[in-house]
Design brief:
The structure holds 2 protein chains of 2 kinds. By secondary structure, chain A is of the alpha/beta class. Helix content of chain A is 45%, strand content 12%. Chain A has 17 helices and 13 strands. Chain A has a 7-stranded mixed sheet with strand order 2-10-9-8-7-3-4. In chain A, strands 1-12 form a two-stranded parallel ribbon. In chain A, strands 5-6 form a two-stranded antiparallel sheet. In chain A, strand 5 and strand 6 form a beta hairpin. The model of chain A is unreliable at 1-23 (pLDDT under 50). Chain B is of the alpha/beta class. In chain B, the strands form 5 sheets. In chain B, strands 4-12-11-10-9-5-6 form a 7-stranded mixed sheet, sandwiched between helices. Mean pLDDT of chain B is 87; it is low at 1-57. Classes of the chains: A alpha/beta, B alpha/beta. At the A-B interface, helix 1, helix 3, helix 6, helix 7 and helix 9 of A face helix 3, helix 4, helix 5, helix 8 and helix 9 of B. Chain B: Pfam families: Aminotran_1_2.
Chain lengths: 424, 462
């Protein structure tokens, strides 16, 4: 009945064979969705005809010529796998080899947890897919739980847990005045949350702020988590990109593991192996023992089956080829360091440029922050000016993707930022 | 602290559980539930809390999770792999095999991949809706490039994770914009359909489809059930090569199905996973969808390239929503994107590039059509051989002609669960428990063996 009412004259009955005039639609009530705040930036950038345009929006690495990069180790892997393998369905849990190598990165080459088979792990659709699978798993098996999300965080985190129907809370993270970590408030929130709460933590290179806890701070956080019995879910999308060394970037996770936490972890190869569009990642959940890990894995597969049946093979093959060959793995590590170093260099350059221009503001945070992003502190209005007057594209929260900064555009960028902020 | 805890335990001899067990119970739910221990309010005893939390952190909040049942379809392949018997035969999952029972990478796919390798294209994120070139060719393949719906830009097309992912996006759209509306699915249907709608929280009910007496279509039952459903229901139809039965409506029957759907104001929703595999012709296999579109109906179509381009593991497909206007199509597309973003952000690129290179290149497209005919042809010939073997070996007079009438990769044998189990346990023939066999996994060399197994299971097992 409500269908008829909703669709008004679409309820007319037609004689068979008559073509109905399509003046009304089932989809009348569907509104246009707002543009995605991050991916919408690239769309706008692409549509801009200006020759001087700069894209520092999405977190996708660019070389010093502003071009996307396919890593050498990846090209070599693709040469090796081209044509000689069929495309049969992967098992529902994905490529076993890829998952094995991926766990080593997060948990350590010689991890006891891996040896004891305590980790339930499945290949996932990059970081997004890993988070979504976990959110659905959390909803199904801890239906009364909520997720505590840092402020700010990657915008899509909110979408993911919302669509998974898991209620959200926030905890303090970024301290705008110092453009650093609001550690005291963060610890307060951790203490005040009900025992056994689920927390989303960025393992390294926090997105969008680039602000990470120090090692000592991570230890305190881990201890407080123990006291409160909280569950730590790590989203690690930038392993290797923070310091240039994947082992170092996994420190937060290792601290938690040392303290005996049974964590969850989402990993992505989008950035650190440049496999963005291949959608390769991994979701892992640490369990008490092998038996439990087998059960949990089976349930993760059960959630994946009605979403996409089994994950895509190509990217997984690339990863397992690269990480499974010591030479290629070494090459990869060099290339990751190269990318991280270029970004660190650009951070220095941007800061120096702004200081040379005589900016009244402090830009120390540019070099203190870590990873791909710089949380500039600019307001949405200032960002709009950057876009409208200078054709510089970034997200309205003032987040600059340093990966899009080059020796060619850093001067232009600094000038533009100075222009819009000098009277702030 | 610890000693305080222990003395508390020993002070109450009535506590039959150990300290450890009590703590484990207290963490069962993994939430902030009140904890009662030895009759006292646990949460009030602060020092107690800190010490016990340190012990409890090793206890998983997912303790009580039980093993999920093996997937009825994908689980079959896993069981097959574990079997060491020399005569074993995998007729489980619908994945095409050559006469040598090897997986088959189409020549056009190899060519496309080489082209891609030479070009050395980057791996940047696709837009949320997928590769534009792919979306264009996939809609054209489905509807025909000169079809009104395409000319008038009335189709919202979004690349999806093969058929499953495309169905799931559509289901999520249905749940969000038609809350409470149900989807009618055929009885039987592909096993994963129910999982998809369940997980998307879309209510479903079944319409009669398979008639065991005739091993054919229960057309009257189908029409009757579609008629009886609340108006404005979604009706899930298999565009061609129905899975698992292989029984398709005739063109005349499709017209009548369209009639009743229009009468009842339902929305047709086609799952097209086998375009090209039914008759061998891509266009012919699209005729049911095109018939509905020609009537000016709004409809949904999920497509998959797993089988017809052999791209199974690349997970490439699309969801198409044909709308009354280009404005509606634009809005619907934007909302499909909004559903995809928190699922996987954007779809995988590799398979999309392969498809757009094959379908978008006239030479490769023609070559594909030939390979398609070859694959469909092989299946038709093993159907014939199986039928011939059954007729030759079975003296009971049973009519096996349904094998020839059924279309596509699958045959619904009519074997029940126990009989299907006999196929596996005694004959090492792996199939799904609903009696479905995938002829794509059958070689002409094995037809006689299979015939023996079917005859034995049918006649000697109840």
């Amino acid at each position: 009945m409500s269908m008829l009412l909703r669709n008004g004259c679409a309820g007319r009955i037609l004689k068979s064979g008559a073509v109905r005039s399509m003046s009304t639609s089932w989809w009348k009530h569907v509104e246009p969705a707002p543009k995605d705040p991050i991916l919408g930036v690239t769309e706008a950038f692409l549509a801009d005809p200006s020759p001087d345009k700069v894209n520092v929006g999405v977190g996708a690495y660019r070389d010093d010529n502003g071009k996307p990069v396919v890593l050498e180790c990846v090209r070599e892997a693709e040469r090796r796998i081209a044509g000689n393998l069929n495309m049969e369905y992967l098992p529902m849990g994905g490529s076993i080899k890829m998952v094995e190598e991926t766990l080593k990165l997060a948990y350590g080459e010689n991890s006891d947890l891996i040896k004891e088979k305590q980790i339930a792990a499945v290949q996932a659709l990059s970081g997004t897919g890993a988070c979504r699978l976990f959110a659905d798993f959390q909803k199904r098996f801890s239906p009364d739980s909520q997720i505590y999300i840092p402020v700010p965080t990657w915008a899509n985190h909110h979408n993911i847990w919302r669509d998974a129907d898991v209620p959200q809370n926030t905890f303090h993270y970024y301290h705008p005045e110092s453009r650093g970590l609001d550690f005291a408030s963060m610890m307060e929130d951790i203490k005040n949350a009900p025992n056994g709460s689920f927390f989303l933590l960025h393992a390294c290179a926090h997105n969008p702020t680039g602000v990470d806890p120090t090692e000592e701070q991570w230890r305190e956080i881990s201890h407080q988590f123990k006291v409160k019995g909280h569950f730590a879910f790590f989203d690690m999308a930038y392993q290797g990109f923070a310091s240039g060394d994947p082992e170092r970037d996994a420190k937060s996770i290792r601290i938690f593991l040392e303290d005996g936490h049974l964590i969850g972890c989402a990993q992505s190869y989008a950035k650190n192996m440049g496999l963005y569009g291949q959608r390769v990642g991994c979701l892992s959940v640490v369990c008490e023992d092998e038996k439990q890990a087998v059960a949990v894995k089976s349930q993760l597969q059960q959630l994946a089956r009605p979403m996409y049946s089994n994950p895509p093979v190509h990217g997984a093959l690339v990863v397992s080829t690269v990480l499974g060959d010591p030479e290629l793995k070494k090459l990869w590590l060099t290339e990751v360091k190269g990318m991280a170093d270029r970004i660190i260099g650009m951070r220095s350059a941007l800061r120096e440029n702004l200081e040379k221009l005589g900016s009244p503001l402090s830009w120390e945070h540019i070099t203190k922050q870590i990873g791909m992003f710089c949380y500039s502190g600019m307001t949405p209005e200032q960002v709009d000016r950057l876009t409208n007057e200078f054709h510089i594209y970034l997200t309205r929260n003032g987040r600059i993707s340093m990966a899009g900064v080059t020796t060619g555009n850093v001067g232009f960028l600094a000038n533009a930022i100075h222009e819009v902020t000098k009277s702030a | 602290m610890a000693s305080a805890m222990l003395s508390l335990a020993s002070a109450s001899p009535s506590a039959s559980l150990s300290l450890q067990e009590n703590l484990k119970i207290s963490w069962k739910r993994g939430t902030s539930s009140r904890i009662n221990f030895l009759g006292s309010d646990f949460s009030k005893t602060k020092s107690f809390t800190r010490t016990s939390m340190t012990v409890a952190v090793k206890v998983s909040r997912f303790k009580d999770i039980t093993m999920a049942p093996p997937d009825p379809i994908l689980g079959v392949s896993e069981a097959f792999k574990a079997d060491t018997h020399e005569m074993k035969l995998n007729l489980g999952v619908g994945a095409y095999r050559t006469e040598d029972l090897q997986p088959y990478v189409l020549n056009v796919v190899k060519k496309a991949e080489n082209l891609m390798l030479e070009r050395g294209e980057n791996k940047e994120y696709l837009p949320i809706e997928g590769l534009a070139a792919f979306n264009k060719v996939t809609a054209e393949l489905m509807f025909g490039a000169d079809n009104a719906v395409i000319q008038q830009q009335r189709v919202a097309t979004v690349q999806g994770l093969s058929g499953t992912g495309s169905l799931r996006l559509a289901a999520a759209l249905m749940e969000r914009y038609f809350p409470g509306a149900r989807v009618l699915i055929s009885s039987p249907t592909w096993g994963n359909h129910k999982n998809i709608f369940n997980d998307a929280r879309v209510p479903w009910s079944e319409y009669r489809y398979y008639d065991p007496k005739t091993v054919g279509l229960d057309f009257d039952g189908m029409i009757s059930d579609i008629k009886a459903a609340p108006d404005g229901s979604f009706v899930l139809l298999h565009g061609c090569a129905h899975n698992p039965t292989g029984i398709d409506p005739t063109p005349e029957q499709w017209e009548k199905i369209a009639d009743v759907i229009q009468e009842r104001n339902h929305i047709p929703f086609f799952d097209v996973a086998y375009q090209g595999f039914a008759s061998g012709s891509l266009d012919e296999d699209a005729s049911s969808v095109r018939l509905f579109a020609a009537r000016g109906m709004e409809l949904l179509v999920a497509q998959s390239y797993s089988k017809n381009l052999g791209l199974y593991a690349e997970r490439i497909g699309a969801i198409n929503v044909v709308c009354a206007s280009s404005d509606a199509a634009a809005r619907v597309k934007s909302q499909l994107k909004r559903l995809a973003r928190p699922m996987y952000s954007n779809p995988p690129i590799h398979g999309a590039r392969i498809v757009s290179n094959v379908v978008g290149n006239p030479e490769l497209f023609n070559e594909w059509k030939e390979e398609m005919e070859m694959m469909a042809g092989r299946i038709k010939s093993v159907r014939q051989k199986l039928y011939d073997s059954l007729c030759a070996k079975d003296k009971s007079g049973k009519d096996w002609s349904f094998i020839l009438k059924q279309i596509g990769m699958f045959s619904f044998t009519g074997l029940n669960i126990t009989q299907s189990e006999n196929m596996t346990n005694k004959w090492h023939v792996y199939m799904t428990k609903d009696g479905r066999i995938s002829l794509a996994g059958l070689s002409s060399a094995k037809c006689e063996y299979l015939a023996d197994a079917i005859i034995d299971s049918y006649h000697n097992v109840k």
